[in-house]
Amino acid sequence: MDEIRKKQLKPLAGMTLYELQQVTESLGLPKFTATQLAQWIYGKRVTTFEEMLNISKSGRDRLAAGYCVGLYPPSQHVKSSDGTVKYLFDVGEGQAIESVFIPEDDRATLCISSQKGCRMNCYFCMTGRQGFHGNLTANQIINQVLSVPGSEQLTNVVFMGMGEPLDNLEPVLKVIEILTEKWGLAWSPKRVTVSTVGIRPALKSLCERTSVHIAVSVHDADHDERLSLMPIEKVHRIREVMDMLGRYDFAHQRRLSVEYIMWNWFNDDIRHAELLREILPNEHVRVNLIRYHMIPEVAKLRTSSDERMAYFRDYLNSRGVTCTIRRSRGEDIQAACGMLAGQVKTAADDDKKADTGTKNKKKD
User: Of 139, 44, 43, 144, which Cα lies nearest the Cα of 101?
Assistant: First the structure.
C-alpha cells in the first residue's frame, strides 16, 4: 500500500484481461504478457514483478516503472472463539475497511466491503453511522479476496461488508468478472452473492450482466416502518424491487434470498410475517432470519428471542416459504461490519486533534 502511495504507481490487481492487454500494448510488450500477468496476479497471487519468471527482465522493468502488482496484506485482524476472523485493510487517508472470514464445515466464506462507509444511512447499521467517505476501487475490493491469509481456500465471496455494492456498481461488476472469468479466478457465479438494500436500476443491471446470487436486505415489509429504518425505501419501495426481481429466473442455478434482521416486538410478529410473504415474487425465494448484533448507538433495538424467531420461521415454512435462521457468527468480536474500522477512524481523528492541539500550543 505504501508503495502505491509513495511512487504513485498504478495497481494491476483489479484490472480485467482487456485492461491488462491495454497496459502491455502501451509498453510494447507481447500480447500474451497480459494473460501471464493475470495468471500471476489472480492465479498465483504474487505481490512483486520479480516473481513473474516467465516475463522477460526488460518487460518486468518496464512494468515496474509505472505500475505495481497492488496486492497488500491486512493491517490488523481479530479472531472470534468460533473461528470467524475480521480483517482490517488500510485504504489511505486515515480510512480502513473490513472483511470477515467465516469458516464452516466444508465452506470458507469471505464477506467483503465495497465502499468506505456507506451513504444508505440505515438506522441500525454501524457503517452507515460512520458516514460515506468514498467508493472502493476494483483494486481495493479484489485485494480483500486475494490477500487474506488462506485466500486459496475460499469457497464463497459475499458482497455484504461495509457499503452498498450497487452504489458502486461498475467496480463491483469488474470484480465479479475477475472472480468468474477463466483468466481470473474461474469461479462459478454460484460462489458469489451480492447483498443490496434494493437500488432498482443498478439491481436490474446486476441481474442482466451477471449470474451471481442476489440477497435483498428487506428487514421490514411495512412501508412506513421500513422507511423509518432505511431511507432507501423512499426512492425504491421494497414491493417494487421484489416485483422487478420476479421477472428474472431464480428457479434453477441462480438464487434469490431475503435478509431479515429480527428486532424484538418490532418486526417479529405474524403480521410482519404475512407482509413479508406477500412481497415475495414466487416460491423460489429463500428467507434468512438474522439475529441483530446490537451497537451502542441503537440501544433501543434488540434482537428477537429464539422463541419468537422460531415461531416466525415455522409460520413462513408452513405457508410454503423456505425460511431459516442464520447462525450468528463472530459476535464476540463484533463481526458486524464497521465496528473495527470505526475504532481505527476514531483513533485517527483523535490523533489529528492531538496534533492540532500540539501545534496550537506551540503557536501560543
Answer: 144
pLDDT over 80 at 363, yes or no: no
What's the DSSP call for residue 40?
I
Which grid coordinates belong to 339?
A: 465496528
Residue of 111, 118, 125, 337 marked active site: 337
**Residue 248 included in any domain:** yes
Choose, from 98, 164, 233, 259, the residue flagged as catalytic.
Answer: 98
Three cell numbers written together for 283: 416460491
329 pLDDT exceeds 60? yes
Asked about 337 being catalytic, the answer comes back as yes
pTM of the model: 0.90
- Known catalytic membership, residue 323: no
Residue with the larger pLDDT of the pair 281 and 297: 281
- Are 163 and 202 members of one domain? yes
Measured CA to CA, the distance from residue 320 to residue 30 in angstroms comes to 58
CATH number of the domain where residue 243 is located: 3.20.20.70
In a domain, 178, yes or no: yes
